[in-house]
C-alpha cells in the first residue's frame, strides 16, 4: 500500500448520472404509451353526428338554383336585347322602305340576286366538304343578314337558344325531380310558405324597382319615338311612311310589353331561387347548433361497457317526434359487440327528449327529426 | 392512449414556467446523481484504504518504517493522514521538548486537525444532496400549482368543461411534481446512506487517533522514564 490512487474525479459520476437519466427517459417513452392504453379509453367518449344528408342536399340545390337563375337571366336578357334590336331594325327598315320604294325595289332585286347566289353557293358548298360549307354558309348568312334580315336571324337564334335552354332546363328539372323524390315537394312548399313573408317584403322593393325600370323604358321608348318622329318629319311628304311609322310604333310597343312581361317572369324566378338559398343557409346554421346539443347530451349520457374492443364503432339511427321526443333509436350499423350497441342505444334513450328541436326553424325541423349518431370510444380530440 | 397524452408530448406542451421548473429539477436530479456516484466511490475507496492501513498498522511494523513508507502529506487519506500528521508532530516535538505533556498535546492537536480535514473531505457535497432532497418537492409542487392555475384560467374561457379538456393540463402540471419527487427520493436515501457511511468512517478515524495517541503516550512513558531516572 505504498501508493494511493488519485482522488475520485467527477467525470465518471457525471457520465453515469446522465446515462441513468437517459435510460429512465427512454424507458418512460417506450413503456408509458403501452401501459396507459387500458384506462383512458373507457373514460373519454365521443359521439359524432354522421348523417345530415338533407342539409347538404339543400345547400347543393341552392347552389344549382343560383347557377340556373344566372343562366336563365343571361338568356332572357339576350332574348330581350335581340327582340328590341329586331324591333328597331324593322322600324328603320320600314322607314327606309317608305322613303325609297324605288331603291328598295332595286335593293330587293339585288337582294334576291344575292339570295339566289347564296342559295347557289350554299348548294355548291353542300356538295363540298362539311367544314368549308358551314363556314361559307355562315359568311353568306352574315352578309345577307347585314343586307336585310339581321333581326329575323337574331330572333331565330334567340329562339333556338331559348329552346335549347328550355330543353336543358327540362332535363335539369327531371333530374331534380328524381333527386327530390323523397319529401321534396313537401319541403319546398314549407320553404315557400316561410319565404312568403320575405317575398312580400321584397315585393315592395321589387315594385318600386319595376316602376323605375318602366320609367326608364318609357324614356327609352320616347327617345326612340323622337328619333322616329324625326325620321317621319324627313319623310313628311310621304303619308305612307307615316302610317308605316305608326304601325311601327305599335309594333315596338308590343315588343316592349313582351320584354317587360319576360323580365317580370325572370325576376320572379330569381326571387324564388334567392329565397330557397336563404332558407337553406338558415336551416343549416340552426341545424349545426342542434346537432352539437344532441351530441353533447348523448355523450354525457353514454356509459361505455367495459372490455370494449379498440376501434369499435356503432351507428344509431334516431327518429324524433315533432317536439323532440324520441320515437325510435335503432342500431344502424352494429359494432359487433352487443353490449356496446346496447349502451349506445341506451345513451340516446337517456338523453332523449331533445326539446331544442322546437327552436329550429319550421323548415329545418322536419329534416332533423331523423339522423344518425356514430359512437366511437377512446377518441380524444 | 393516444399520442397527445404521452409524457414527452406533455412536457413539450407545458407552459414556460412549468418547463423552467422541470429544467431546474432535471438539472438538480442529474447533479445529485453525480454527487451520489462520486461520494459512493469516495466512500468505498476510503473504506478499503482504511482497512488496508489498519491491517498494516497492526501488523507490528515499526512506526518509523511505516512513516517512511507512506506518501507525502497531501496524498494521504483517512487514518493514514491522521497517523502521518500525528507522527510527524511527535518526531518534531520530541527533538525540541522533553515534556511528554507538551508532546502529547501537540500530537493530539495536529491529529485533530488532520481528522477535521478528513471530515471535511468525506462530507464534501453531501449538503448539496440534502438541499436537493428537501427543496425539489417544493419546486415541483410550485410547477404543478402554476400549471393548474394556468389550466383553470384557460378553462374559464372554454364553453364546456369536460374531463377531456382539463385532463392534459393537469397531467402536464403533475409531471412537475413527479419530477420533483423523482429528484428528491434518491437524494434523501443516498444522503442518509452516505452521511452514515462518512460518520462511521470518521468514527473509525477517531478510534484510530485515540489508539495511536495511546501508543505514543505509552512510548513516551517508556522513553521519559529512563530519561527521568
Please explain how this structure is put together:
The complex is a heterodimer of chains A (381) and B (229). Chain A has 381 residues and is α+β, with helices and mostly antiparallel strands. Chain A folds into two domains: 39-51 and 287-377, Fusion Protein Consisting Of Minor Coat Protein, Glycine Rich Linker, Tola, And A His Tag, Chain: A, Domain 2; 56-278, no CATH class. Helices cover 76% and strands 7% of the residues of chain A. Chain A has helices spanning 11-35, 38-43, 53-99, 101-127, 130-179, 184-234, 239-301, 338-350, 362-367, and strands spanning 45-49, 314-320, 326-333, 370-377. A four-stranded antiparallel sheet of chain A has the order 1-4-2-3. In chain A, α3 (53-99) packs antiparallel against α7 and α4 crosses α5. The longest helix of chain A is centred in the C-terminal third of the chain and has 63 residues, at 239-301. Chain A starts with 10 loop residues before the first helix and ends with a strand. The relative contact order of chain A is 0.13. Chain B has 229 residues and is mainly alpha-helical. Chain B has one domain (18-55, 78-228). Chain B is 86% helix and 0% strand. Chain B contains seven helices and no strands. Chain B has helices spanning 7-13, 16-57, 63-69, 78-96, 100-122, 126-157, 163-228. In chain B, α5 runs antiparallel to α7 (163-228). The longest helix of chain B is centred in the last third of the chain and has 66 residues, at 163-228. Chain B is rod-shaped, with a radius of gyration of 28 Å. Classes of the chains: A alpha+beta (381), B mainly alpha (229).
Briefly summarize what is shown.
Chain A has 381 residues and is α+β, with helices and mostly antiparallel strands. Chain A is built from 9 helices and 4 strands; from the N terminus they run ααβαααααββααβ.
